[in-house]
């Protein structure tokens, strides 16, 4: 037939010509600015347009603090590196750890109060159970967090304690 007249050489030349025409069409259609910048003699190919600076009118200055300095979250403060240190070992053994043991003591007090509510416990029952907590956490009586613990105890007990009875707890 008619295809027998074409050789591999004719096919490869036709494929090469059609491929070159295709890529030139795609290049000029989608990349005409890059191609024109490449062939223009006075332009820098890697940086075709100069960057705008903050003193020029077209640039918005977004770094300006229009409202003021941002406030840190509650309890967060910025300190210098030489002001940052850890609690010495001697102090940490004599004081009640405010995050760990305080929470444990409060949880123990809550459990005692729950038991007293369920079993209709008396003040004497509370004092005997609280002595177990004092033996388990001996740092409680020398802690500076006693007023907080007193308020916590008064808040959770199902009955009222007098001031003398509260002071007797820590002796």
| N-to-C series of helices and strands | HHHHHHH
Show unreliable segments: none
Biggest sheet features: none
The 3D shape can be described as elongated
Overall pLDDT level: 79
User: Which structural class fits the helix and strand makeup?
Assistant: mainly alpha
State the helical fraction: 40-55%
Q: What is the CA-atom radius of gyration, in angstroms?
A: 41 Å
Beta-strand percentage range: under 5%
Counting DSSP E segments of at least 2 residues, the number of strands comes to: 0
Alpha-carbon distance between the termini? 116 Å
Number of helices: 7
What does this structure look like?
- The chain is mainly alpha-helical and 171 residues long.
- The protein is built from seven helices and no strands.
- The model has no long low-confidence stretch (mean pLDDT 79).
